[in-house]
Amino acid sequence: MAEKILVVAEQREGKLNRVSFETLAGAQALGKQTGWTVEAAVVGSNIASVAAEIAKAAVAKVYAIEDKALEQYTPDGFVTALKTFIEQNKPKLVLLPHTYQVRDFAPRLAAALGAVLVSDAVGCKFEGGKLLFTRQMFQGKFAADISLTGDGPWFASFQTGAFRGDQVEAGEAQVETVQASAGEIRTKPEAPFREAKQAVDLTQAEIIVSVGRGIKEQKNIEIAKALADALGGELAASRPICDAGWLPMERQVGSSGQTVSPKLYLALGISGAIQHLVGMKGSRTIIAINKDAEAPIFEIADVAVVGNLFDIVPVLTEEIRKVKGA
Q1: What is the predicted pLDDT for the residue at 139?
Q2: Which structural domains are found in the chain, ordered by start?
Q3: Measured distance CA(263)–CA(208) in Å, rounded
Q4: 247, 166, 171, 256: which is closest to 210 by C-alpha?
Q5: What is the pLDDT of residues 263-274, one digit of tens each?
Q6: pLDDT digit string (tens) for 15-31?
Q7: In the structure, what pLDDT confidence band is assigned to residue 77 with cuts at 50, 70 and 90?
């Protein structure tokens, strides 16, 4: 009997967190390398529609782990329900998206099962009969391959952007509802965690316009904001911009900020320090505008524009407005 990979997808208030598809894509790729079966599970209450959405991916089965007490997220409830399910289902490997919620409960879940959790992995492979997970070290300057031993279950979470969510293979999986018990919940649910009040969750943005030192002055950020508004996207920045107080810290992309994987990432005046690249290199399409032809950002850009952003961006914004107004 083939071993199993279980993907624990994440839903928020009845809506599937789209980074779950990235984890599904990683699981499918690993399943092909190992020959292991891929299944998925989602935890909550009244989550039939979420489970049905996951079932559009090519997985063997989707489990809707239901309990009224799981309607609101609590680490107590999720750990108890998932521990029981994993003990019964017996997957060899459990994969999760590296979200705030997963960071909260996954270490405790792994410990409850006497297992190891490899967190924030950026890749995985199966070589020489060994399963290896890649983690970035020292703010992305080095990468380490971590092997797992023992009987399992093994746990790992994937960093946002590690895989392409749009590359999930489509399918038509069977959905099975599992009545769970959340056990004794000792914690009182509060509002979902945010970086700051009224902060934007850049991980959910499909279009991001990001600025770096090339913007020169705080007042010039309005140029980038106008482009973001024209595209219907979000405004972000590299660390120096946020350190200077020109934009709030929750807008920072990079190793000490948010890790994003939008459909489109426009980098304006960003040179491309490794700390910034590790936070956005998983973007589907990267357009970089920089007057320095040797800027490191161009090494990962799909479209590289060498020029003055103050000449290019206003014209680009106006053309986009014309197209949208047509």
Answers
A1: 64
A2: 4-179 (3.40.50.620), 202-325 (3.40.50.1220)
A3: 8
A4: 247
A5: 999 999 999 988
A6: 999 889 999 999 999 99
A7: very high
Locate all alpha helices (DSSP H) within the chain, ordered by sequence. 19-34, 48-54, 75-89, 100-112, 221-231, 239-243, 274-280, 309-325
Tokens representing residue 237 in the block: 């920045």
- CA-based radius of gyration for the chain: 21
Distances (CA, A) of 276 to 139, 153, 211, 252, 285: 9, 34, 11, 9, 16
Q: Which two tokens stand for residue 218?
A: 């705080």
- Encoding tokens for residue 54? 């996951």
Q: Who's near 225: CB < 8 A, 6+ residues apart?
A: 209, 235
CB burial of residue 257 (10 Å; 0-12, 13-18, 19+)? buried
Q: Cα–Cα–Cα angle for 148, 153, 155, nearest 5°? A: 65
Distance CA 188, CA 186 (A): 7
Residue-wise pLDDT for 125-174, tens only, equals: 888 888 899 888 776 667 888 988 888 899 999 988 888 888 899 999 99
